[in-house]
Amino acid sequence: MNPRLIDALLLATVATAIAVIWGTGLALPSHIATGFGVLGEATGYGERHLHLWMMTLLAVGLPLPLGYGMGLLAGREGQRLSIPQKAYWLAPERRMATLAAMEARVKVMATLLAAYPIGLHLLIVHAQRQQPPHLSHGLMLALHGVLVLGMLAWVVELNLRFGRTR
């Protein structure tokens, strides 16, 4: 994995999230449906500006610290990493490459987490166009499904990469 490409992808996703959230959100009425029941019916309302700031926080406040806090997550020399075959992968001759590979994978997960609020916000924007506001149950399930499948793929790839010694 190319570290520069992964950095660019993460930062571009965060920037896109901010642009989409604010670009589409400012056109919403000042008071919007922000809570929805299991069938998509509006159950709660809030101020547009609070929604926009919460979506921005979700798009920035988790992905960037996660993506760029790998050193803190891993601990000194990777001792807090939880990977298969940890002793092998953190042996002195492989430690730097392992930490770099983990950093790249954490940034991929952070990118996925930065993309999620884009979809969530767009679903909420779409819900406001209906009277009364209604969130598409199918699209919400699809959005959550993409997130879960992405996380599962990430875990599988991580285990394939570190599950065996070479």
Radius of gyration: 19 Å
Q: Find the structural class using helix and strand composition.
A: mainly alpha
Largest sheet: 2 strands, antiparallel
* Domain unit count: 1
Q: What is the CA–CA distance across the termini?
A: 18 Å
Description:
It is a single chain. The chain has 166 residues and is mostly helical. The protein has one domain (3-162). 67% of the residues lie in helices and 7% in strands. It has helices at residues 3-25, 48-60, 63-68, 70-74, 86-89, 95-128, 137-162, and strands spanning 31-36, 42-47. It has a two-stranded antiparallel sheet. Helix 1 packs antiparallel against helix 2 (48-60) and helix 2 (48-60) packs antiparallel against helix 6. It is elongated, with a radius of gyration of 19 Å. The mean pLDDT is 92.
